Structure formats: structure tokens, C-alpha cells
Amino acid sequence: MVDGYHKLTRKRQLELLAQRTNVDLSKLTKLAVDSIHQHQIENYLTDFNLPEGIAVNLEVNGRSYFVPMVTEEPSVIAAASNGAKIVQRAGGFTAHSTRLMVGQVLVSGTDLALVKNYVEKQKQHLVEIANAAHPSMQARGGGAQSLQVRELDEDKLSIDLIVDTREAMGANTVNSMVEAVKRELLANQINVDMAILSNLADHALTEATCQIPVELLGEEVAEKISLASEYAQVDPYRATTHNKGIMNGIDAVVMATGNDWRAIESGAHAYAARSGQYRGLSTWNVVDGMLVGKIVLPLPVATVGGSIGINAQAQMNLKIMQIQNAKQLAEVIASIGLAQNLAALRAIVSEGIQQGHMRLQAKSLLIEHGVAETDLEVAVNMLVQAERIDSKNAQKIIEQLRKKDTDE
Ligand code: NDP
User: Fold this and answer.
1) Residue 64 CA, ligand 1 centroid: distance in Å
2) Containing H/E element for 248?
3) 145 ligand 1 Cβ < 6 A
4) How far is the CA of 405 from the centre of ligand 1 (A)?
5) Is 285 helix (H, G, I), strand (E, B) or coil?
6) With a 6 A CB cut-off, is 260 part of the ligand 1 pocket?
7) Which domains does the chain have, with CATH numbers?
8) What is the pLDDT of residues 92-128, one digit of tens each?
9) Could you tell me if the CB of 136 is within 6 A of ligand 1?
């Protein structure tokens, strides 16, 4: 049991942690004392670095983008660029989005017909109360727009508040608004259990589509991609992996732009299961000589708010993409997801996913086992030609090269 850890000075926190865990914290590369992050989270220890790279050739609605991606997974950026390049040759992606958030006021009791009646009659008044809780949102053209009542079961209902949060993701704004509505209902003797944003952002959907002439991929590959997408519609085991590939691309851009990837992940998967069965977020069909790809998912990303304003890297990344607004960002992100999906499906149905991954996998393995940077290129060539790409062979190659280096 550790009591009051957060009240200790940073020095005492580090001493306590080192003492209790036997970890030599001086080995941490960066115990940044002056990091802005110490004000951002609780019990700050250090910064955790991840690689950032750029995907190229992504064309969306007639504009070309350099897309910053933050990911630790080899081959994600290569695959995104590869998928994007194929689609660019076919005219690029077309994308559009809607952007409203949903907040819930959850009510239980026996007189729900009365509550429903009250809410219907007081709709306008309740929307005004919500807007009064954050008037500046209305001033910039957004704000609470409407209310609707959903019956959940015989003694529970959700009063859904629909809010335009403009350039912000809006979690805090919506929470303030629904809490104001909650107070008003409580004052009118209605039994409110809780009031909070919903991450099933199905009023903030983004759709991206592309049409690729089948001869660009080969007729057989195009048909097989379409078949692969059918599997993801009928089998949750395949759908989960299908969507993981999509999220490889989506999360990487969501993170690079300082957005809340847990919100995007939870919304995407809930949306994938909206029919009652978990399905692929994208579909591919061959229609009149074209492979038609389509993805739809909730993408309530933001260009302001949350940590974006204090994250210089996120702001630089938004500038690299020349993003003007949150809708445009969502459209780029959905397109990256579809590009990622195309590259992965193409690899799976043709040479198999491992072939393309082999060099990157060999590289990671060699780095993990301490290959000298100067030997890396040669070592990768040796390992991909070895009988198996595994730790034993990686170590053998590193030893051979070390010996050669010392002999020379
Ligand atoms: P903020 O609380 O940072 O709010 C953003 C603020 O930016 C707005 O309230 C507004 O303040 C200001 N702003 C300036 N320009 C604009 C503009 N053009 N459009 C809109 N707002 C503008 O963030 P959010 O409310 O967006 O909430 C996101 C954060 O909440 C994320 O960090 C997320 O991780 C976290 N969160 C998520 C939850 C979830 O997903 N369930 C739950 C709770 C928190 P003003 O009007 O005063 O100028």
C-alpha cells in the first residue's frame, strides 16, 4: 500500500520507487524535470518516446498530404504509403464527414412515461440550459442542438444531447452541458443516475471511398481483396484482425495529432459491432471493372483542446498536413485507414503478409539483440537469407560480424 504518493516531492517519489522496485532509475534516459508533461498527468515519471514517420502519396478530395504517423510497429508507414500510392494512381480518395457529439443523461425509475413527456415538452428549455453551461460554443456557431429520448429497458432511459463542438473533440464541453441538464432534472424531482459524453460518436461519422481499376492490381488480386472483405463481414475473428490493420494507420495519425486514441478506438469498435455482430469497418467490391473500397467510422478528432494546445509536436504535425479544420483531419485519417487496409489485404491475398514484413522483422530482432549500427544493413541481408528469422540466427550473425569487426 502506498499512501499519498502524489503528495511527495519528485525526489522522494523517485527514491521510493527505486527502493520498492529495485530498479536503477538513473538508467532512464530522460528523467525530464522541466517537461511540460509533469503538469499534464499525475505522478509523472518521465517521457515515453515513440517513433514518428511520414506516409506519402495520400491524396484526399484532390489534395496531396504528407501524413505524420506515430507508431512503434515496423511496416505500418510503408504499407500506408504503398496503399495510398495505388489509390493516387486511381485518382485518390473521396471523403466527407459529419461532426456532432452525443452526451447522455441517464434516468431510471417507474414513471418514465412522465419523464419522457416532461423532456419532450421542455426540450427547448433544456437545450438552452445546456448552452448556458458553455455559451462560447454557441457564439462560434456550435453548441447544443437538440435532445432525443431513447428507452433502454422498462425502467431506464437515456436523454441524448446532440452538440456541435466545432473544432474541439468536446468531451469536457459536453460533460459540462449534460451535467447542467442533470441539475435541472434533479431540481424537477427526476431521478438522474449519471450524465456523461458517449464515445459511440455515431453523429461524427467519416466516410472515405476509392475506386481502383482492377488492371492496376490484377483481376485475381482485386477479386481476392473483395473476398477477404466478405470474410470480415461474416466472421468476427477475421473482422477483428481486419480492423486492427485499419487502426494501425488511424491510431498512428490520431496520436501524431495529439488526439485521444482511446476515444477513437472505443468508438470505432462499438460502431463495428452496431448490427449486433462485430464486422469489418471497410468493404471492398469489384463493380464494373473497378475495385471499390469504402470505410465508415466515427472520427471525432480535434484541432484544438485536450493536449493539442500544449503539444508542440502535435501542432507541427497538423501544420505538416496543412490541416484547416477537424473535418478535414478526420477525412485524411479515414483515408489512411483505408489505404492501410488495402495494402494489408493485397499482401495477405498475394504473397502473404510475412514476406513484406521479413526485412523489418529481421531488423527489429537484430536491434533487440544488440547489433552494431554499422553492421545493421549487412546483418539484415544475412538474416533474411538465413533458414529462419529467429533470435538464434540473429545472435549467430551478430557474433560473426562482431568477430569480423575485431579481426579487421
Ligand atoms: P477542452 O476541455 O480542452 O475544450 C476545448 C476548448 O477549446 C473548448 O471548450 C473551447 O473553449 C476552446 N476552443 C478554442 N477554439 C475552439 C474552436 N474553434 N472550436 C471549439 N472549441 C474551441 O477539450 P474537449 O472538451 O474537446 O475535451 C477533449 C479532452 O477531454 C481530451 O483530452 C480527452 O482525452 C478528454 N476526455 C475524454 C473523455 C472521453 O472520451 N470519454 C472524458 C473526459 C475527458 P472556450 O469555448 O472556453 O474558448
Assistant:
1) 29
2) helix 236-256
3) no
4) 55
5) strand
6) yes
7) 5-40 (no CATH), 52-97+204-350 (3.90.770.10), 101-198 (3.30.70.420), 367-407 (no CATH)
8) 999 999 999 999 999 999 889 999 999 999 999 999 9
9) yes
